[in-house]
Amino acid sequence: MTSIKIRKADREDSAAIATCLLLAMEEIVCEFIGQRDPNKAKEFLLHFIEQEHNQYSYQNCFVAEDDHQVIAAVNIYDGSQLNPLRVPISQYIKTHFNTDFNPEDETQPGEYYIDSLGVNPNLQGKGIGATVLKFLINYFVIQNGKTIGLLVDEENPKAKKLYLKLGFKSVGQKILVGKRMEHLQIKPRAESF
Q: How far is CA 122 from CA 126, 133, 163, in A?
């Protein structure tokens, strides 16, 4: 690895973003669309990543590059915008998959929500996910005074351990598509006077 560069995504990154995010989301996307076909899940996700003004849009993503290749992607957005960002997705699922899309709210106003983070499988275990998370903490929490939130599957203690090590704290439980998740947040430090 040379040096990892993290930047806001643009539309040209859409296919690489879909590949990375699907690593973290395939099961959930299949649940949303009511189909078990990984190709349909990828097509669905790519469709929305390429579009603007929705939950999964490239506008709400950052990518990590090494040698001009996208090696990781993260989807993060303002939790207060969850419902408007979900509208196009809900309509699309109803129209194309003839199923209702009413998942639980996984985020809320007052936090920037890390919806999903995926790292190229050939490069996992090399600290890339942690590097992306540190970048987000620096950008959102330290520089801009925002809270970051995420959900971690209770059956994924390795991920939870990483989040806690980076400074996230448990703020409660949530259920998302039938799975018990722990809601973690990292907040800006209170200014001392």
A: 10, 19, 22
In this structure, are residues 136 and 77 in contact, taking their beta carbons and an 8 Å threshold?
no
What is the Cα–Cα distance from 48 to 35, expressed in whole angstroms?
17
pLDDT digits (tens, 9 = 90+) for 72-81: 999 999 999 9
* DSSP string for residues in the chain: ----EEEE--GGGHHHHHHHHHHHHHHHHHHHHT---HHHHHHHHHHHHHSSSSTT-GGGEEEEEETTEEEEEEEEEEGGGHHHHHHHHHHHHHHHH-----PPP---TTSEEEEEEEE-GGGTTSSHHHHHHHHHIIIIIIIT---EEEEEETT-HHHHHHHHHTT-EEEEEEEETTEEEEEEEE-PPPPP-
Closest to 91 measured CA to CA, from 142, 126, 51: 51
What's the pLDDT score for residue 193? 42
